[in-house]
Specification:
Layout lengths: L3 H10 L16 H5 L11 E13 L2 E12 L9 E7 L6 E14 L2 E6 L5 E5 L4 E7 L8 E10 L4 E6 L6 E9 L4 E8 L1 H6 L1 E5 L2 E9 L17 E11 L2 E4 L4 H14 L5 H7 L10 H15 L1 E2 L11 H7 L1 E2 L1 H14 L4 E6 L20 E8 L2 E5 L19 E4 L6 E4 L8 E10 L3 E11 H16 L16 E10 H4 L1 E10 L7 E4 L21 E2 L4 E10 L4 E5 L4 E4 L5 E9 L3 E10 L3 E2 L4 H15 L3 E5 L4
Parallel strand pairs: 1-10, 16-17, 23-29
Antiparallel strand pairs: 1-2, 2-8, 3-7, 4-5, 4-8, 6-7, 9-14, 10-13, 11-14, 12-13, 14-15, 18-19, 18-21, 19-20, 21-22, 23-24, 24-26, 25-26, 27-35, 28-34, 29-33, 30-35, 31-32, 32-33
Length: 639
């Protein structure tokens, strides 16, 4: 997007390297030597004592010097003696790592024993997608060992500078980053994360900016949070202006200009050429009474006749003619072809740039930073109503938008009028479970079950069934439990997503071990998604994200067999948590020949701050306990 002359001008105007102080190898204080447990994360197997980075401009490149100090606290922490430094090289060797040095210090009888990591244990290798790794293998790692390594990374890209992330996989006691700017370049600074906003220690002196955070939790997998990168504490920079003589030149001054540049890229690739689309699909009948029906025909034609391959990214690799010839393309290429097909049918339709969940941003910042976008979707006007469209999942019906794209806002692309717009995705993704329970003395406990999953819940179910069918695994395995000898029979799955927005599965179960029993202990609700509490950890680092509001309702009809009577049953209950994020109700109705149990689990606000974790944990444990509560039938005694 920038000319060679522009970058030559920038490179020639950059001044030489500036020195920056850093920690020194083998210089530990008494606290570091004695450190044995992280007070706020006592189960941590290792800890980052110090993580330090210093960046500066050096000639034609941006370089950062790193220094890391780690202490091993438990046997399981020894794995941190294998270090992998990933960087993007590509064909131009955009990034390079050099000057790697590593040492390990262990303490025996109060004396420090330092060993340098030999060159044979430090090497670089190629991975995939243009990436490379520098690997360091520390020798003789023991509990109590302190590992240290430093290296320099150079980057030829000075438009988007590498972000500094303060957290690590293990707790970090001290993370410091500083960057020295130069007068010829002006950058916009973007900080993210609750700790960074509220707790970061910031300094500025003669063009050198420093940022420090202390006592950070390690990031690790937590239930209902797959988008960790969106919540990391980090700071990054994008070039906004450069000096040209006595004048300042703006790179990206507005959303309109950024939008026009992206539209031009797509136009150069042919995706705005309606004539080519019309000739290619000359025999495709898109006639229909409504624009929505036309759009559905176009969607299903592309979904079912082209292969969707590769990952989402805002830049198409193929031109439109190449896509049409190959009959396959990336999600972005397919979406842009879909746009072209709709435009050729006279439907107003434009792309929207979004930063997908997990890409590293919780909210779009109010500056035209191109780096905050990684995927696209469409906004079409169908019969006077605006509708978001996507095309990256061959099981998804028309109108479904990938869940990772369900974000708060996006950049709507329109020539000279591009702007940020709010995004809202409306759907009713609920679950309905109906179970009929009967007892036959010669056969045991029999249940007939019908599960109906709506909208995105249904799409998830479709993918689960497809994965079982592809691996030739019987569908009965979906519902079988290792804890019981229950047989699962007669599984039947029906995909009604296209016609009615639901996916249904019916099946029977048989528990033969209850034949001819005087006392029947029945767990009535067996197939709820919430019958186990996933939140068992003592603390929570990240928020909880259930993705979207949903309701699961269960109705269980238990027939009281002849010769038996109801002996005991769970009581009705109603639960919620402060803020009204979740709610649960459990009701029971006793009749002469049957018992009916109704439960409802509601996710009203799917995003729950980590400060509510204690209340959430107790709520989910209470729900799981109630869903496992047994109902007891006993044989009527004969006088």
């Amino acid at each position: 997007m920038k000319s060679k002359a522009f970058w030559t001008l920038i490179f020639l105007s950059v001044i030489g390297p500036l020195s920056a102080q850093t920690a020194k190898f083998g210089k530990f204080n008494e606290n570091e030597i004695a450190y044995a447990e992280v007070p706020y994360e006592p189960d941590a197997s290792a800890v980052v004592l110090l993580d330090q980075g210093s960046s500066q401009f050096n000639g034609s490149v941006f370089e950062t010097t790193y220094f890391v100090r780690i202490k091993i606290l438990k046997e399981t922490g020894k794995s941190y003696g294998d270090v992998r430094l990933r960087f993007y090289s590509g064909q131009r060797r955009t990034e390079e790592i050099s000057g790697v040095r590593a040492e390990i210090t262990s303490f025996v009888g109060g004396k420090a024993n330092t060993e340098k990591v030999p060159n044979s244990a430090m090497f670089e290798l190629e991975t995939e997608g243009g990436y490379r790794e520098y690997r360091i293998t520390f020798p003789n790692v023991q509990v109590g060992s302190i590992l240290e390594y430093s290296y320099k990374k150079t980057d030829k890209n000075i438009e988007f500078l590498d972000a500094w992330t303060f957290q690590n996989e293990i707790p970090t006691l001290y993370s410091h980053y500083q960057i020295t700017m130069i007068p010829q370049l002006r950058y916009r600074t973007l900080g993210q994360g609750e700790n960074f906003i509220k707790k970061a220690e910031k300094t500025e002196s003669y063009g050198t900016y420093g940022y420090t955070l202390r006592n950070l939790y390690g990031f690790k997998e937590e239930p209902y949070m797959k988008n960790y990168r969106d919540y990391f504490d980090r700071v990054e920079f994008q070039l906004s202006q450069y000096a040209q003589g006595s004048e300042w030149v703006d790179l990206i001054t507005s959303w309109e200009k950024l939008g026009d540049e992206l539209i031009e890229i797509y136009r150069d690739k042919g995706y705005y050429r309606s004539g080519l689309i019309e000739r290619e699909f000359l025999d495709l009948d898109l006639s229909a009474d409504t624009q929505r029906e036309i759009a559905k025909k176009a969607y299903y034609y592309l979904r079912d006749n082209f292969s969707i391959i590769g990952d989402d990214w805002i830049y198409p690799a193929q031109t439109l003619p190449q896509l049409l010839k190959a009959k396959s393309g990336s999600p972005t290429e397919m979406i842009l072809a879909f746009m072209g097909l709709l435009k050729s049918a006279g439907i107003t339709c434009e792309p929207i740039m979004i930063g997908s969940k997990g890409y590293g941003r919780t909210d779009i910042v109010p500056y035209p930073f191109l780096s905050q976008f990684d995927e696209i979707l469409l906004l079409a006007e169908l019969d006077g109503k605006k509708e978001f469209l996507d095309l990256n999942d061959r099981l998804a019906p028309f109108g479904y938008v990938d869940m990772d794209k369900h974000v708060k806002a996006g950049l709507y692309l329109q020539k000279e009028k591009s702007q940020l717009i709010p995004l809202e995705f409306k759907h009713n993704s609920n679950s309905v479970i109906v179970t009929d329970v009967t007892y036959l003395p010669d056969s045991g406990l029999i249940t007939k079950n019908q599960i109906r999953e709506y909208h995105y819940n249904g799409l998830k179910a479709a993918h689960v069934v497809e994965s079982f069918e592809k691996s030739k695994t019987p569908l009965e395995k979906i519902f079988e439990s290792e804890a019981e000898t229950m047989k699962v029979l007669n599984v039947n799955a029906k995909d009604k997503l296209m016609e009615n927005n639901f996916y249904s599965v019916s099946f029977d179960t048989q528990l033969e071990e209850l034949k001819n029993e005087d006392l029947l202990i029945i767990n009535p609700i067996k197939f709820s998604s919430y019958d186990e509490n996933p939140f068992t950890a003592a603390y929570r680092v990240f928020p909880v994200d259930f993705e979207y509001a949903t309701t699961e309702t269960s109705t269980v009809n238990i027939m009281i067999p002849e010769g038996y009577e109801l002996d005991d049953y769970p009581l009705a209950e109603s639960l919620t948590i402060p803020g009204g994020y979740l709610a649960f109700t459990y009701q029971i109705t006793v009749m002469k020949d049957r018992v009916v149990i109704n439960s409802k689990f509601e996710i009203r606000k799917p995003f729950i701050p980590q400060q509510q974790y204690g209340a959430l944990k107790y709520f989910m444990e209470s729900v799981a306990s109630k869903l496992h509560a047994p109902l007891v039938l006993k044989k009527i005694a004969t006088p």
